[in-house]
Amino acid sequence: LGGVQAVVPVAPPDELQADHVGSALAQLRIGDRQVADLARLQRALAAQPDSETLLFQVARLQVWLDRRADALVTFRRLLAVAPGHAEARHMAAVLAGEPPEKASAEYIASTFDAFADSFDEKLVGWLEYRAPQQLAALARRVLDGRIAERAIDLGCGTGLVGAEVKGLVRRLDGVDLSPRMIGHARRRGVYADLAVEELVALLQRRPDSYDLALAADVLIYIGDLRPLFAALHGALRDGGLFIASVEKGGGARYIAEKSGRYQHGEDYLRRRAEEAGFDLVALEEVVLRKEENRPAAGYVFALRRRPPVAADPLAALSTDDLLAQLAQPAAGLLAAVAQRMIGRDFQVGWALDIGGGMARHAEDLRRLSQHLDMVDPDPARVRVAFESGAFDECEAAGTLDYLEARPDHYDLILAGDALVRAPDAPALFSAVKVALAVAGVFIALADPARQDAATLQAQAQAEGLVVLAVEPVSLPDGRPGLCLIAES
Ligand SMILES: C[S@@+](CC[C@H](N)C(=O)[O-])C[C@H]1O[C@@H](n2cnc3c(N)ncnc32)[C@H](O)[C@@H]1O
Prior knowledge:
The protein is of the alpha/beta class and 488 residues long. The chain has helices at 17-25, 32-47, 52-64, 68-81, 86-95, 105-115, 119-126, 131-143, 160-165, 179-188, 199-205, 226-235, 266-276, 319-326, 331-342, 362-368, 379-388, 399-404, 418-421, 425-435, 453-462; strands at residues 148-154, 169-176, 193-196, 210-215, 236-248, 254-256, 262-264, 278-291, 294-305, 348-354, 369-376, 393-396, 410-415, 436-446, 466-474, 480-487. The strands form two sheets. Strands 1, 2, 3, 4, 5, 6, 7, 8 and 9 form a nine-stranded mixed beta sheet that branches. β10, α16 (362-368) and β11 form a beta-alpha-beta unit. α5 crosses α6 (105-115) and α14 (319-326) crosses α17 (379-388). The longest helix has 16 residues, at 32-47. The two termini are 44 Å apart. Residues 1, 108, 112, 131-132, 155-158, 160-161, 175-178, 181, 198-199, 216-218, 221 line the site of S-adenosylmethionine.
């Protein structure tokens, strides 16, 4: 946990003994001492270049000192000596910018088994860890006097959460990957059932079982929350609550920090919760604990499970039928214009299709952009786009909100019929201007019966777009159209 635990498989040389405790205490001190420690460890490593212990300690100290490139090299050296070293594997992937979607079961189990006996002392005593109390306070508020019949503590660890929520639940289960952490939880005597298992797998085995699920300081080991939220939706009963903490990240994505742990942005939580069928009933910013002697900012939040939506008539159709409903005749035309603008043999990084009408032409667009997203407020339309497999990310959201939340993000934005459907073209232009990266291109089709060329041009320019052309085009179904091409 961020260098607090000392996983020392072999006894370190004598001169390093003091640092055994120090590798934990180091977390609480900043400054020259670590640089001196690192130099000492590196001298020792030069004498024993294959020492797992020394490689591990050096790598951890390099991370601490923010020497990430050095730490990556050291973790890779460690992996060459000990290919099964789960933490080295995780950290090397994170430092190389290719984090896994969540921490592996081996990494979690080995880390927390090593940490179990000192977890409470270090977290509560040294790092002023408060997530269990914060979750319990939020649970008390959201339950509002009710008692949860059956609850589960996900990643229960030594059972600190169990001790806090005793009075709020009739029966409490717990699950954790670390047998030794579970051993401590068992001794608290507050859990009816304790399982050593991966928590998503356990939730999938227990459909419709819980009124309340809690996860304190656990989602920091899970980056992509989609599988967890889907499993939770299955395991919670209607109206069931999920109350958890995350480390505070930014925006609509999650990231893996140099600590190896994940941080989630508020927009990311909102979006994934909404998609999975939850209402966000509370979200508060808190200080979770200390990290490198500074307060670690986090969120505690509560989700309430919505009942599944009644079967959608679209669900009965094949993907081809669904696609036909989505595709618009003009999409091919837009793809051709985009090709012309970008130029043959060139590629942009990020492209967005507002409305998802380009699905049928996704292959053309893939040649033009490395990453292709779609957005539309209509969830049915988004599902169709998602099922087409054409897009990297599909999101049901208001187009303006979506664009404004991604400043300087897209090199290419396409709007097959968004402009036709937009009640307020200037607002769309303004949001597009925000989301376009430098020299990004916006290509949209308009209906001349609703919007004439001169007005469109003036509106786009008033919002700061550089209009390159407003061309009259003939749509494949014979209707006249207007194609607007603008740059940021
Ligand atoms: C920082 S501890 C928090 C423990 C406890 N919730 C508390 O607040 O004291 C994180 C715990 O989550 C467990 N954990 C992390 N990922 C897990 C997963 N995917 N499945 C089950 N347990 C997991 C770890 O083993 C560890 O015990």
